[in-house]
Design a protein that fits this description.
6-stranded parallel β-sheet; binds adenosine-5'-triphosphate; about 20% strand; glycerate kinase, domain 1; 6-stranded mixed β-sheet; single chain; transferase; binds (2R)-2,3-dihydroxypropanoic acid; Rossmann fold; nucleotide-binding; 2 domains; Glycerate kinase; about 525 residues
């Protein structure tokens, strides 16, 4: 896809190949730019200003006096790199620290060329690995106990920096009595298997664990608390990310029982869980007043929206017309693709109109496939200037597993896109030679489901090419076997493999639509 082509002549096969490759490289580059915006260095340097001459640390306008009074704790899939930056910025002032990260993280980061995210051997911050498969375990519990012990002994002169990212809930388990670690494990398993969302599970966790729902900040009293948070939840609710350990809790235990009953999970949960919640329900929860929380500063440093903006900017630099469709995409991966398909269909319909019709009401409506003005504007600019439109979106979809194959939500979405594009161009046969479409879906953490790929790319010729290579995309989709298919298709050309990136701001989708006709879409 040449970025500004206006030619009506059919390109030569060799041009097509290099053009397709170029576009693939460009779209990958747009995705990688989005990932880079979520790297610890980039995120923290925006919010953290340190003046060594006065030992003043400024965090989004708030000043802290640093004098060998700094402590660092962290938990989540993307906190190691942040801990490294804290070490670099505050060096000798750090007295002690503990970060709890997933099992095998350090080895994975080294294997993926991110040794620069590891802590130096002289660091005062200790690293603990645990929570295998994102489930609370004994190692994570031990790390949580040590973190609790660390924050419990601080004075009002101390500052504790709390590094938080997705996966943090499982990495900081601390059951309230009489619950046990095993009860926490059961709660997670039972609720998820009954169809709970992450906010359902975390709402329940908050009332059953000591350090969640503001608990860590409470235990750190009277120290000052500054949290740097990377969001992996839709809507970026601070209460929900890693179950909000430094965020004032406002929900009551009533809400947990409602969730449990909505999911029909009461009977499947350990009895003691419901007993604790029932008992809490009748207690009047003494909430600390707002002023009590003045010593706590929560700063959101990484979000899917920031990543989408970075992607849009890079797309523009590459000569595309970008627009951000949504940063809150959710739902079944193979169905979410219809949202993008709507764009393509509208553009194809618009391209078929006569010049007069394009000027009329019908033309205008077709160029407004989404009701936001910014999106409509971009579609119009792309259409009028015959430039490729780059639709950027983000969020986190789900996959209702029915098959036994290997895949992830992004690879599955790309596969579903390939199938839908085929059907779309069967309807708009006359536009096939004139329109090029490339779609990418990938996870910013570099790992899509239990595979070593981040996601995949797909173009409008995928079905024809796949069948000619002896592959059966329909069967692969039915069997949730997208990874096997993308590994085989064109020798793995369209599989996106980045390795673990060290950040985690959910997923990114990019749709590029180019019209090779002088008259525009
Ligand atoms: N064969 C498969 N095909 C498609 N999706 C799959 C398959 N196996 C697992 N998944 C999906 O992968 C997801 C779990 O993988 P992953 O670890 O990337 O997600 P996660 O635990 O939500 O972590 P994160 O939010 O950090 O990406 C689940 O949504 C699950 O439905
Ligand atoms: O750890 C968690 O609770 C989830 O990843 C959401 O942040």
């Amino acid at each position: 896809m040449a970025s500004t082509s206006t030619s009506t002549t059919k390109p030569e096969a060799s041009d097509l190949r290099s053009r397709d490759l170029q576009t693939r490289v460009q779209l990958r580059e747009v995705f990688l730019t989005a990932v880079r915006s979520g790297m610890p260095q980039q995120m923290l340097e925006k919010v953290l200003k340190y003046d060594p001459s006065t030992r003043t640390l400024t965090v989004e306008g708030r000043e802290y006096q640093v004098n060998r009074n700094v402590f660092v704790v962290g938990f989540g899939k993307a906190v190691l790199g942040m801990a490294r930056v804290m070490d670099e910025v505050l060096g000798d002032h750090i007295i002690r620290g503990i970060v709890s990260i997933p099992t095998g993280s350090r080895a994975d980061l080294v294997a993926n060329g991110h040794s620069d995210m590891l802590l130096s051997p002289n660091s005062k911050i200790r690293v603990r690995e645990g929570a295998n498969h994102n489930l609370p375990d004994e190692l994570a519990f031990q790390a949580a106990r040590d973190i609790h012990q660390l924050v419990s002994n601080l004075t009002e002169k101390d500052i504790v920096f709390v590094l938080i990212s997705g996966g943090g809930s499982a990495l900081l388990p601390y059951p309230v009595e009489p619950l046990t670690l095993d009860d926490l494990l059961q709660i997670t398993r039972v609720l998820f298997s009954h169809g709970a969302s992450i906010s359902d599970v975390n709402t329940v966790r908050v009332h059953l664990e000591l350090l969640k729902g503001g608990g860590l900040a409470r235990e750190a009293k009277p120290a000052q608390v500054v949290s740097f948070i990377i969001s992996d939840v839709i809507g970026d609710s601070l209460e929900m990310i890693a179950s909000g350990p430094t965020v004032r809790q406002v929900r009551s235990p009533h809400r947990c029982l409602e969730i449990i009953d909505r999911l029909n999970a009461r009977e499947a949960l350990p009895k003691v869980v419901v007993e604790v919640l029932e008992a809490k329900k009748s207690q009047i929860v003494a909430q600390a007043g707002l002023s009590e929380w003045d010593r706590v500063q929560n700063v959101l440093v990484g979000t899917n929206a920031i990543a989408c903006q970075a992607a849009a900017q890079r797309a523009q630099e590459l000569g595309f017309v970008p627009c951000i469709l949504s940063t809150e995409l959710s739902g079944e991966a193979k169905e979410v693709i219809y949202l993008f398909l709507g764009f393509i269909i509208n553009l194809l319909q618009h391209a078929l109109l006569s010049p007069n019709e394009r000027e009329g009401e019908k033309g205008k409506q077709l160029l407004m496939p989404c009701q936001t003005l910014q999106v409509a504007d971009s579609v119009r600019v792309a259409s009028n200037h015959s430039k490729p439109l780059c639709v950027v979106a983000g969020g986190e979809t789900t996959v209702n597993l029915r098959g036994k194959g290997k895949g992830g939500r992004n690879q599955e979405m790309a596969l579903s896109a390939g199938l839908q594009l085929q059907q779309c161009f069967q309807t708009f046969k006359s536009r096939r030679e004139l329109t090029e479409v490339l779609f990418l879906s990938a996870g910013t953490d570099g790992q899509d489901g239990p595979t070593n790929a981040a996601g995949a790319l797909v173009d409008e010729n995928f079905m024809l090419d796949a069948v000619s290579q002896g592959l059966d995309p329909v069967a692969s989709l039915q069997n949730n076997d997208s990874h096997t298919l993308w590994s085989r298709f064109a020798g793995g050309r369209d599989l996106l493999v980045t390795g673990l990136t060290g950040t985690n701001v959910m997923d990114i989708q990019l749709l590029l639509v180019q019209n090779n006709q002088a008259t525009g879409f």
